[in-house]
Amino acid sequence: MLFQDREDAGRQLARALMTYKSRHPVILALPRGGVPVAAEVAERLDAPLDLILVRKIGAPMQPELAMGAVVDGEQPVIVRNQDVIELAGVSERTFDAVCKEELDEIERRRARYLGDRARSDVKGQVAIIVDDGIATGATTLAAIRALRKRDPKELVLAVPVAPLETLQRLHAEVDAIVCLDTPPDFGAIGYYYRDFRQVGDEEVIALLKRFPAKRTTTPASGFPASGWT
Prior knowledge:
- The chain has a domain at 6-54 and 116-209: Rossmann fold (3-Layer(aba) Sandwich).
- Strand 4 (62-71) and strand 5 (77-80) form a beta hairpin.
- The strands form 2 sheets. The chain has a 5-stranded parallel β-sheet with strand order 2-1-6-7-8, sandwiched between helices. A 3-stranded antiparallel β-sheet has the order 3-4-5.
- It is built from 7 helices and 8 strands, in the order αβαββββααβαβαβα.
- It has helices at residues 6-16, 34-45, 82-88, 92-114, 138-148, 164-170, 201-209; strands spanning 26-29, 49-51, 54-59, 62-71, 77-80, 126-130, 154-161, 176-181.
- InterPro entries: PRTase-like (IPR029057), PRTase_dom (IPR000836).
- This is Phosphoribosyltransferase.
């Protein structure tokens, strides 16, 4: 067992990311499980916190099997896992129908979690994507590709635990990966937490209230401004 809970994982991950503190990064969490981890990172790096609203597109008869993922935006980013689609015998119509259901859930979460909250501007910034772990990497890949379109200066993926082969597939998509452990025979993310209870909407909302979405300015001196929005 590597971590007591997501907060413990976040504290450990923050220690591994401390070299980024002076570069004034923006922390972007994958809800819901990634938010408690990312909150610990944001606190210790004195960084703003925002969400990447991404949903797995699960196979109809096996919802835990990712046949793709979708990220919200003016033009949603959709990543397809063609091998799974073909193996499960999923038609284009069925894929599109499940994708629409997940986009509807993303819209619900956006309204509930964010409301009229300001969003982080990552253009020209160091952006760090945080989750509580990675399994297949489908949702993570969708999040990375969506964030790339927002033109960050540097894109970092930071997670407590993930299978090595998944990280190897994602390596070309980011500028750096920080992962605390890559155990063999990975299994499931929850195996590596003593407490892996589901994170609820109210917890996500409460954590977001503790952190701003962005700094107002970063002075030429290199020190972060005291003002937040």
